[in-house]
Amino acid sequence: xxxxxxxxxxxxxxxxxxxxxxxxxxxxxxxxxxxxxxxxxxxxxxxxxxxxxxxxxxxxxxxxxxxxxxxxxxxxxxxxxxxxxxxxxxxxxxxxxxxxxxxxxxxxxxxxxxxxxxxxxxxxxx
Length: 126
Prior knowledge:
Layout: H1 11-26, H2 32-48, H3 52-101, H4 104-107, H5 111-124
């Protein structure tokens, strides 16, 4: 949890000091996430025997793949569900319009009120 220090800064040094404070809090070498990233980089460097430049690039690609592939699969599954539901909504919208046109109450409404009612029902299924 970030704790803000109540100190008086001059206008120019306030941004630098707060940035410095936040960066020290987030990237302190004793924090667990910094240690994990450091150990990952050292492990890839030692096990693959790559130079440090290639180690950093390889680790970045590896981490992006590990994070992005599950998110991509999750997004594709959700898209399949949404497209399936959209087809059902289109069918339900047509059925609702047919039922509405056969309704006695609908026939007794003014044209303006019919449009309002249709827009409300059609908007529900879109």
